[in-house]
């Protein structure tokens, strides 16, 4: 546990120091050219934000709020570019790391009940239409586990293809499909609850102060059952990437330990987003 805490503190320090210098900034709603994207990818800091980083708190929706179902959820997510220049086909090699934690601060001793570790490595390709930057595609291999043993151990791997496409200056659609490799003895049925793919859309106001997103993760099978995540954010300062944040989660798989238990949870707090758009 000492090693895990050291890694966790190291990541927080790097987020504080480097996290605001993450992705290419879209200014004034103007399209970004291929030349400028290539230049910015090469010149930007190697270290930055990958997915949303947040610290939020709130109760369960439906059941009566208790000390057990009212908790803190926080996520830290970073990306490290491993190549100085472009690889063949205009691609870049990245190392990704996301850590998600559920913290029952209202209970005695304030236990962290579930820690999820999600490292990965992938090749990212910026996408262009008529010399205009419209998004990116990433092919990646990732692992996710909770670092526990015995009957509480959870683990699986995914070979995934993800894409983010800016339809307009206000709308970005995103999707991800994966091939699961389940190696955890206690979560052989995780695909039944976390599926094979997800999709969603992110909407941004003209003044870039308001952002909203919905992500749908399809369960296994042909029915319409899905996990749904709704995010709403308000930028606190116009030139910063910090937001007041509300997240609503409805479905299974919010955390690895109880991946097969239904959760409906609403939480509010602070969000730190990448400059251009988020990965999901």
Keywords:
280 residues; globular; 14 strands; 3 helices; mainly beta; twelve-stranded antiparallel beta barrel; disordered N terminus
Structural summary, described in words:
This protein is mainly β and 280 residues long. Helices cover 11% and strands 49% of the residues. It is built from 3 helices and 14 strands. It has helices spanning 2-18, 34-43, 190-194; strands at 32-33, 47-49, 53-58, 71-81, 92-103, 112-129, 132-145, 155-166, 171-181, 197-204, 210-218, 226-235, 242-251, 263-272. Strands 3-4-5-6-7-8-9-10-11-12-13-14 form a 12-stranded antiparallel barrel. The longest helix is centred in the first third of the chain and has 17 residues, at 2-18. It starts with a helix and ends in an 8-residue tail after the last strand.
What is the secondary structure topology, with strand pairs?
Layout: H1 2-18, E1 32-33, H2 34-43, E2 47-49, E3 53-58, E4 71-81, E5 92-103, E6 112-129, E7 132-145, E8 155-166, E9 171-181, H3 190-194, E10 197-204, E11 210-218, E12 226-235, E13 242-251, E14 263-272
Antiparallel strand pairs: 1-7, 2-4, 3-4, 3-14, 4-5, 5-6, 6-7, 7-8, 8-9, 9-10, 10-11, 11-12, 12-13, 13-14
């Amino acid at each position: 546990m000492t090693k895990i805490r050291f890694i966790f503190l190291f990541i927080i320090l790097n987020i504080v120091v480097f996290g605001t210098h993450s992705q290419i900034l879209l200014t004034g709603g103007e399209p970004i050219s291929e030349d400028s994207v290539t230049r910015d990818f090469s010149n930007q800091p190697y270290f930055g934000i990958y997915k949303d980083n947040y610290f939020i708190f709130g109760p369960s929706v439906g059941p009566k709020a208790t000390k057990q179902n009212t908790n803190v959820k926080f996520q830290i997510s970073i990306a490290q570019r491993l190549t100085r220049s472009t690889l063949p086909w205009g691609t870049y090699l990245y190392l990704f790391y996301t850590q998600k934690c559920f913290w029952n601060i209202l209970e005695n001793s304030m236990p962290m009940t579930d820690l999820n570790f999600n490292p990965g490595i992938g090749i990212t390709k910026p996408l262009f239409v008529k010399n205009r930057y419209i998004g990116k595609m990433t092919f990646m291999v990732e692992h996710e586990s909770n670092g526990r043993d015995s009957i509480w151990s959870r683990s699986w791997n995914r070979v995934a293809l993800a894409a983010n496409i800016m339809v307009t200056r206000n709308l970005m659609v995103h999707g991800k499909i994966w091939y699961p490799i389940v190696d955890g003895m206690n979560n052989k049925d995780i695909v039944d609850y976390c599926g094979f793919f997800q999709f969603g859309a992110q909407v941004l106001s003209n003044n870039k102060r308001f952002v909203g997103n919905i992500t749908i993760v399809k369960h296994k099978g042909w029915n319409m059952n899905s996990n749904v995540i709704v995010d709403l954010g308000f930028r606190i300062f116009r030139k910063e990437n910090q937001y007041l944040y509300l997240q609503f989660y409805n479905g299974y798989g919010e955390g690895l330990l109880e991946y097969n238990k239904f959760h409906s949870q609403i939480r509010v707090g602070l969000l730190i987003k990448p400059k251009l758009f988020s990965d999901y």
